[in-house]
Amino acid sequence: MERSPRSQTSVLPIPMRALLAGARKRERALIERIRRLVLIESPSDAKAAVDTCARAFASEIKIPGARVTLKPQRHFGPILQARFSPRTKPGSPKPYLLLGHLDTVWPLGTLKSMPFRVSAGRLFGPGVLDMKAGAAMALTALEILAEARALPREIILLLTGDEEVGSPVSRPVIERIARGCAAVFVLEPAQGLAYKTARKGTGNWRLEIQGLAAHAGVDFTRGASAIRELARVVETVSGWTDLNRGLTVSVGVIGGGTKTNVIPENAWAEVDVRIARRADGPRIERKFAALPSPAFKLLDKRCTLTVTGQINRPPMERTRATVRLYRRARALAREIGLDLGEAATGGASDGNFTSALGIPTLDGMGAVGEGAHAAHESILIEHLAHRTALLAGMLLG
User: Fold this and answer.
1) C-alpha–C-alpha distance, residues 100 and 164, integer Å
2) Of 270, 286, 313, which closes a domain?
3) Are 307 and 336 in the same domain?
4) Do 189 and 69 have their domain in common?
5) What are residue 215's phi and psi, to 5 degrees?
6) Could you tell me which of 98, 140, 114, 138 has the C-alpha nearest to residue 43?
7) Which of 213, 229, 305, 339 has the fewest C-beta atoms lying within 10 Å of its C-beta?
8) Contact, 64 vs 87, CB < 8 A?
9) Measured distance CA(2)–CA(22) in Å, rounded
10) How confident is the model at residue 214 (pLDDT cuts 50, 70, 90)?
């Protein structure tokens, strides 16, 4: 029989109130740490910039006994891994994995138009919410526990440099480490004030039509319009959306043609797919794979269709094991006056990978704020200490 959330709190070696006091004591230092990280711009496609940010974060780790490695990558920033004592011994509980990333969506130079600033109880700046604050909070939580000599198991902090572009390099590393862990805590932003127990999976496809160019006035019938055929394909794939299943197919970007008086010989579209159920991944992949075939007939047989893409991240489905983690977090949150909600989101994270492996994964354990990927990206200072203390409490479980 599952224990009640309130009974689970009695096993902590440090009361939640004491953890909150430790987080409040470090709040100014935490804000300064966040400021330093935000001031180091680190877009995913600027390898040298992400390298610099990762090295700066590594230099922040001063916990005695920490083993820090920076694994360089050819095209992306390094994978930062830090392991914190006690070392694993026979019979010891499996480690916990703290998972996050240091890359952002913001191009170099964004700080000029979107500077780091403190205003109206918020911290503003590119990447402050998604998710440099979460990385800084994780290290602060570990410092609180290390100072109290209260680490009950090995904790692994893993920060990557390619999450915002789909984790093409870091995914196998994440999965390998997660397989040896008891649970994964993802440092992505909160959903409102809530932790996330479910995320949609994501996929991306590109549709390309090759037609025949011709003068729109002189040789109209000799042309084969790629745009006209693309429009039909767009209508077809958009019709695969099934809101009752949490499946959406959205054509987000299109292009084609050269001049208004030229029959367009090329056209293309990029498609975003979101799935709530893992079983829908293979189904939607089969649908796209069947497009360039006799099953889907283009009106103009002189045109050809090329389809590329796949499901990138499986969904993070709501499992019993993840719900148990959430209920433990909710009980701990109550001890420091928080009403911790539970949420699902259409966005994906690296937690999708670990959850798909069957590892209990709790997401949204980073900062509270708004405007991720937007010009008003910011976090609320008032929640920093409580959320950091709650993260520390979860690591004690």
Assistant:
1) 11
2) 313
3) no
4) yes
5) -70, 130
6) 114
7) 339
8) no
9) 31
10) very high
Range of the domain at 302: 201-313
| Residues 108, 29 within the same domain | yes
Does 355 lie in the same domain as 300? Answer: no
Indicate which CATH number applies to the domain containing 59: 3.40.630.10
Residue 23 and residue 364: Cα distance in Å, rounded?
A: 19
Same domain, 178 and 208: no
CATH of the domain at 293: 3.30.70.360
Co-location of 168 and 251 in the same domain: no
- pLDDT-based confidence at 66, cuts 50/70/90? very high
Strand partners, 387: none
275 phi/psi in degrees, rounded to 5: -130, 140
What SS3 state is found at 377? Answer: coil
Whether residue 76 contacts residue 102, with contact meaning beta carbons closer than 8 Å, is answered with: no
Exposed e or buried b for every residue in 204-222, given b needs 16+ CB within 10 A?
ebebbbbbbbbeeeeeeee
Query: Judging by beta carbons within 10 Å of its beta carbon (0-12, 13-18, 19+), is residue 36 exposed, middle or buried?
Result: middle
Res. 86 pLDDT band, cuts 50 70 90: confident
Q: Determine the 3-state secondary structure of 304 from DSSP.
A: strand
Choose among 99, 159, 104, 131: nearest CA to 357: 99
CB 226 within 8 A of CB 210: yes
Contacts of 243 (CB under 8 A, 6+ apart): none
Residue 259 and residue 137 share a domain: no
Which pTM was predicted? 0.91
CA nearest 105: which of 353, 381, 347, 326? 347
Q: Where are the beta strands (DSSP E) in the chain?
A: 67-71, 79-84, 96-101, 117-119, 122-124, 155-160, 183-186, 195-199, 201-210, 214-215, 248-256, 262-263, 266-275, 304-313, 342-345, 361-362, 369-370, 378-380
Taking only the tens place, the pLDDT of each residue in 27-38 is: 999 999 999 999
Q: Are 199 and 349 in contact (CB under 8 A)?
A: yes
Same domain assignment for residues 47 and 121: yes
- What is the full DSSP assignment across 318-346? --HHHHHHHHHHHHHHHHTT----EEEES
Tokens (6 digits) for 386: 């409580």
Tell me which of 87 and 135 has the higher pLDDT: 135
Torsion of CA 230, 167, 94, 136, to 10 degrees: -120
Q: Which two tokens stand for residue 38?
A: 């935000």
- Structurally, the chain folds into a number of domains equal to 2
Q: Which two tokens mark 151?
A: 């680490």
